Amino acid sequence: MLTFETMDLTKHQKTVIAFRKDSFKASFGDTAGFGDEDDYLHWLGEKISTFPKGFVMVLEDGEYIGQLELSIKDYKGESIGYIHLFYLVPEKRGKGRGVDLFHYAKAFFLESKVEHYHLRVSPSNKRALTFYRKIGMEQIKTELDGKVVRMRGKL
Length: 155
What we know:
- By secondary structure, the chain is α+β, with helices and mostly antiparallel strands.
- The protein has helices at residues 9-28, 37-50, 97-111, 126-134; strands spanning 2-6, 55-60, 63-75, 78-88, 116-121, 138-143, 148-154.
- It has a seven-stranded mixed β-sheet with strand order 1-2-3-4-5-7-6, with helices on both faces.
- The chain is globular and about 35 Å long.
């Protein structure tokens, strides 16, 4: 069974950076676009204080296996849920854990009373695209000169 723990940057600093960098590697082939670690930690700190239930570490049997970064934001005049990061360590992918993370995200968005949620994913990350389509998301457009695909789900 998975448990979800609000991020604590003192406790989880190394893990959140490692997981986020690995997500860049899985999406884009390297970590070149990651940016500055301190900037990322500062951004996380701000988001955690605003959305503590949205910025969580995922544990299984006491071990960190994933990370979710969820918030509410405005998109074209509509309040939407937004998935900044949907991450599982490689050895846990394809084993049903993603569906468990999705259920957590969906509950967070339902509690926030939004109708839609979005995320952006690299078009080269075929495994992620397949999963997002499987859970009912649809592609709505490309962004950043084709580097990412914006997808939308409905609650």
